Amino acid sequence: MNEYPNCPKCGSAYTYEDGNVFVCPECAHEWTAADAEVAEEATVIRDANGNVLNDGDTITVIKDLKVKGTSLVVKQGTRVKGIRLVDGDHDIDCKIDGLGAMKLKSEFVKKI
């Protein structure tokens, strides 16, 4: 049995191949293998130096960052261990010692 990719639109596992396209029976979305590769490349998150970030990596903040709504500042050089990558404007979810849970933008960090 062939393994087909899950639907990129709804995540359904019941996709099937029709000629050279994949079809999702649940949401009727159609895509090609090339579309899936382009979408996979688009979700790669990189740091300020262009290194690919992964879940669980250790990063360093490269710039002082003000925390909205407080007078706290995340200082340059702060190390953050065990990051999680998420979708959205702030693509790193982490916990910083002394400050708590934070969301950071990948453009302000570098991988160690």
Report on the structure:
The chain is mostly beta strands and about 110 residues long. The chain has two domains: about 1-40, N-terminal domain of TfIIb (Single Sheet), CATH 2.20.25; about 60-110, SH3 type barrels. Helix content is about 10%, strand content about 30%. It is built from one helix and eleven strands, in the order E-E-E-H-E-E-E-E-E-E-E-E. Strand 9 (about 90-95) and strand 10 form a beta hairpin. The longest helix has 10 residues, at about 35-40. It is elongated, with a radius of gyration of 19 Å. The termini are far apart.
Structural topology:
Elements: E1 16-18, E2 21-23, E3 30-31, H1 33-42, E4 59-61, E5 65-66, E6 73-74, E7 79-80, E8 84-85, E9 92-96, E10 100-104, E11 109-111
Antiparallel strand pairs: 1-2, 2-3, 4-7, 4-11, 5-6, 8-9, 9-10
Organism: Exiguobacterium sibiricum (strain DSM 17290 / CCUG 55495 / CIP 109462 / JCM 13490 / 255-15)
Protein name: Alkylphosphonate utilization operon protein PhnA
Domain Protein YjdM N-terminal: 4-32
